[in-house]
Amino acid sequence: MLSTEKQAIIKSTAPILKERGVEITSRFYERLFANHPELLHLFNQTNQKKGRQQTALANAVYAAAENIDQLEEILPVVKQIAHKHRSIGVRREHYPIVGEHLLLAMKEVLGDGATDEVLQAWEDAYGIIANVFIEIEEDMYEEAAVQPGGWDGFKAFKVTRKEKESDAITSFYLEPIDEKPLPSFSPGQYISVQLHIEGETYTHVRQYSLSDAPHQGYYRISVKRESDHDPEGVVSNYLHNKVKEGDTIPVSAPAGDFVLDTSKDIPLVFISGGVGLTPLVSMLKTVVTQQPNREIIFIHAARNSQLHALKGEVAQIVKQIDSVTNYTLYSNPTEEDMQSMDSNTGYVTLEWLQQILPHNQMDFYFCGPTGFMNTTFHALQQWGVPEEHMHYEFFGPAKQLETVQ
């Protein structure tokens, strides 16, 4: 337990961490990778290059400082990060290394402000916070390993099927090489794939949402191909262009806390943008099986039909299940789209949502690009939807959605 005096010291550093947090975490990662390059095998280098990981860590450190006297307040964030850590292979032995380099970065960036008293308080606080992560993650490792069909770390899977879903998205059907039964997962969860790409110095690990329902005998991921010139395209282009049916990919057990709550029976609204529909299709397929009478509105936004993946699967469900309604929005429709009665033109806005939804007393799940997420969050917030009825996930390091003032 951190003393009251040290809690006060930590909280007093919160304003400077808010102001210079990214500077500290950027220096932290520089030091960390210079001294421990082996850790580059765990981290997404695209997120490093674009500053996403630095920002995410800065936000986490600031949140810890603000809530050091009530760490239970940040447990949801801790668990979200812990799922990522378990899925990529962060272990107990990594935490002392991280703590050492974080304190060194603080000392370097804060200069005279990083007194012995401040650094000692942060060293003690880090030890407490690290132990929280370690305990939660070790429970997650054990749970993943001991469940029926479960495993620890990465396990070899074969690509048994590769199917083009749109001009940008391809699905990969994965089955374990050892042919053991697959553990179930909660709709909305993701798996990590580990790739050794020729010409790349370090292993690449990426998380992809599972885009089909559980208990299918396979895991399915539906991957968007990024531009060849985009740093994010290294892995997606390799999967699209190089990985073939019959190839083997190491995969970690399903993880993630963006999951469907089937304990409720209030209406559901799924709102997706682009490849953000992948976890929501998994949720849709699950809820129509487990709660076939539950009202569901499935909304998908894309540029046009050529970039609209899994469209036929959703349409088939709508055709078979009376309780499901589907809306499609195209921001840049083709001529054929303009003539079709199956889609609308435009973007997700509050006014449009209020036109198609009878009320806001529903559970909203949404996923997509950052701009789309902010727009959807603000629209629901302005409509008075309580935060406990808004469920969302970012692809990559967790970001914060800004509250409308």
Automatic annotation (TrEMBL):
It catalyses: 2 nitric oxide + NADPH + 2 O2 = 2 nitrate + NADP(+) + H(+); 2 nitric oxide + NADH + 2 O2 = 2 nitrate + NAD(+) + H(+). The record marks 29 as: Involved in heme-bound ligand stabilization and O-O bond activation. Residues 149-405 are annotated as: Reductase. Its EC number is 1.14.12.17. SUPFAM superfamilies: Ferredoxin reductase-like, C-terminal NADP-linked domain, Globin-like, Riboflavin synthase domain-like. It holds the Pfam family FAD_binding_6. NADP(+) binds at residues 274-279. GO terms for biological process: cellular response to nitrosative stress; nitric oxide catabolic process; response to toxic substance. Heme b binds at residue 85. The record marks 84, 393 as: Influences the redox potential of the prosthetic heme and FAD groups. The active site is at residues 95, 137. Residues 1-138 form the Globin domain. Its cofactor is FAD; heme b. InterPro entries: Cbr1-like_FAD-bd_dom (IPR008333), FAD-bd_FR_type (IPR017927), Flavoprot_Pyr_Nucl_cyt_Rdtase (IPR001709), FNR_nucleotide-bd (IPR039261), Globin (IPR000971), Globin-like_sf (IPR009050), Globin/Proto (IPR012292), Hmp (IPR023950). Residues 152-261 form the FAD-binding FR-type domain. Gene3D superfamilies: Globins (1.10.490.10), Nucleotide-binding domain of ferredoxin-NADP reductase (FNR) module (3.40.50.80), Translation factors (2.40.30.10). FAD binds at residues 190, 206-209, 394-397. One of its GO terms (molecular function) is oxygen carrier activity. Binds 1 FAD per subunit. Binds 1 heme b (iron(II)-protoporphyrin IX) group per subunit. Keywords: Detoxification, FAD, Flavoprotein, Heme, Iron, Metal-binding, NAD, NADP, Oxidoreductase, Oxygen transport, Transport. It is an enzyme of class 1 (oxidoreductase). Belongs to the globin family. Two-domain flavohemoproteins subfamily. Consists of two distinct domains; an N-terminal heme-containing oxygen-binding domain and a C-terminal reductase domain with binding sites for FAD and NAD(P)H. PANTHER family: FLAVOHEMOPROTEIN. Is involved in NO detoxification in an aerobic process, termed nitric oxide dioxygenase (NOD) reaction that utilizes O(2) and NAD(P)H to convert NO to nitrate, which protects the bacterium from various noxious nitrogen compounds. Therefore, plays a central role in the inducible response to nitrosative stress. This is Flavohemoprotein. The lineage of its organism: Bacteria, Bacillati, Bacillota, Bacilli, Bacillales.
